[in-house]
Description:
mainly alpha; 7 helices; 78% helix
Amino acid sequence: MQKLFLTFLSTGNLGRYAEAAGSxxxxxxxxxxxxxxGMQTLFMLAFVLSIIAVFESGKFVVNGGDAAAVTxxxxxxxxxxxMIALSVAASLQLPYAQPLALLLTYLAFLGFEAKKxxxxxxxxxxxxxxxxxxxxxxxxxxxxxxxxxxxxxxLDRLL
Length: 159
């Protein structure tokens, strides 16, 4: 069960496609949660899973597990990004703002995840164990959500 949780329903077992697949699955599930149970439910789920993921991924890596296979952190990160981008999209007059917010969030998250700029990369390299694994992706998610929100706001003003 631990491995199924940490690999986010086995998306972490997809090798070089693990990050993209885990993020996409999280985007789909997060969207379903937002539109059925609400943004508050997604926030609580992301918050609780973040805490569990820190401890479980730390144990997993200490016991010889591959940190690259852990994709629950991608889910949590993209959920934080979605919350930011969708909150801004709801206030815009831009047609298709919410689907566009999801697309921009996904693309921005993959970019931040791949490049790991600035503090995101530092957290990933320097913070050992589960804390570094999860916090780097939460920060990448927040940065992705802010970037998507800024792009949406810019598009709304231009159109």
